[in-house]
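for the record, two folds in this file. i put them one after another cuz i was lazy. first one right below, seq on top, structure tokens after. the second one comes after a little note so u can tell where it starts
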Amino acid sequence: MIDFSLHIATTHTPLPSKDDFYQWVKVTLSPKNADAEIGLRIVDEAESAELNEQYRAKAGPTNVLSFTLDQNPLVGDIVICAPIVAKEAKAQGLADIAHWAHLTVHACFHLLGYDHQTDEEASEMEKREIETLQSLGYDNPYGVEP
């Protein structure tokens, strides 16, 4: 069972439901989710920029951040910036809900230890994201098969 909490710290709308977020997290972490504790915080650009600067030494807001706690990949926090998600979805011609699902799944894979620092890592992570999103009924967010 996943101990899942959702914190909304933005006035940006529309947002997916708590059930949507929970489903995306659950499917991504399955079958290793027996003792998962995941906190998801939806923020605005100011908070995203502050966290991005503090933890990644990068200026400006970012779409999603993942924080693994206690070196346990099933315990962590995810921060998603709602205005950035909306801007990216519009720019990429995506349905908002599909982009929310992708970023949530993407963040969960980071919590599981996946990364995209090298081409090989990126290819493996993208493959797993595509498979997970397709199992949830969403199209490949990368447009081409990895």
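(here's the note) second protein begins now
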Amino acid sequence: MLALLLLAQEGLSLGVGILKQRAVDKVTKTFEIKRESERLLKAALEEKVALRGYFLSQNDEFLIQYQLGKHTFHSSFSRLSELLENEPYQQKNLDTIKTFHDQWENQFVQPVLEGSLDAETLLQQGSLDILRETVDSIITYERILLHGQNERLRYLDRLNQFSFMLIGLSIGVIIIGSGLNFVLLRRRVVSPIQHLMKVGHAWKNGQLAVQINHVSEDEMGRLAVILNGMARDIRGRQEKTQQRNQQLEDLISTLSHDLRTPLLANRCALSAIVGEAFGPVSDGLKGLLEEYRDANDNLIKLVETLLDISRYEAGGHILNPEPLNWHTLCDRVVTWVQNSSQCKCSFQVCIKPDLPTVKGDAIEIQRVLQNLVDNAVRLNEPGKQVLIQVTSADPAQVQIAVQDQGPGLKDQEVNRLFYRFSQGAGRQGRAGLGLYLCRQIIEAHGGKIWVESTLGQGATFWFTLPADGAEKHPVLAIAATRLSRQNQYV
């Protein structure tokens, strides 16, 4: 509708403008015809006056005045012929003027110039009444045309006013249409998108049960149906994954608990046999039994690790926070590593003075540090150095780093290293639970753990612990751990 109104308004304005310009041109032409007609009549009168003056005084100056009048007459006549070229009625008047003027020159002008005209003939032949009547006829006709053009201009002005009314109507339609369009846009697009954003935030926070309550037959309605279906499918898969993970966790926890008792019994029995509590044992058999005992101890460590992981994941592990002494922790770890393995690496321990006080479970934090140092020693080349660094770039936390000079890690290994059963280069043959347990311990203390590595240039394992008095969120850490279980069995 708006387009039709605009087209009508533009067409009307264009047509009125063209017709008005034509009417103005005709009015201008009418005034010019009137002016030239009056000029022609005046020139004829000047000719007559000049000839009379010459006849009475025989003064040649009157002849000059006559020539000027004659020139003006022919000039006006030529201009009138151009202006009235396409008007047959006026052409007849021009023919009458030309015929009269030619006769007037033959019957009046020539005798005056030759001196053969007497006074009585001068009065008879010098009359210009016919010329005056013809010029009046031309002017009267043009006055009638002028009146018609004026009427036409008034009609065009009314049309122009109607065009302005169309403009106002178009503006009104635009305003009303814009308002309706805004209302419809808000109802059909803005409000559904706002609702979709609200539901999207709920989905982002794990509330997949929230549905998009928008029903319509347009694209937004179909999109809502598709997204609701996707949310239901994802929620179903998540429930199945969580159920499967819970079953696996329960199975691992049960098996670990059931295996621990017989493994401890085996260790006691093997230790008694090796110690010759049941009689002498040959050296060959003793060596074999010692290997069995070491393997049994490794199984016990694995089972205990699985039990600890289960307790951390369930939020049932109780921490005993106390101010941590970093010098004591680092000395214990270095001593333990040197005594428990054939360590061929050197250690450098750098502890920054005036560190903020950190409260944590010393046994658990030592366990984390011990695991990281043990991995660094195993991966380091003989004679290379392992760096243990305790710093604080932020008064609200302490940073601990363990740097080795081993083969380093690939990017895909870095991304999965702290998940359950993940192993990096050089760690094949182990269960892949040590770093995962380290992550559980650090997150339970409200800290973070990560690794920085370049392939072929070693790796640096970092973990942070919040200082005493800094804001801690152990509950959030445990919740984050539970939410990440869906990736633990990949």
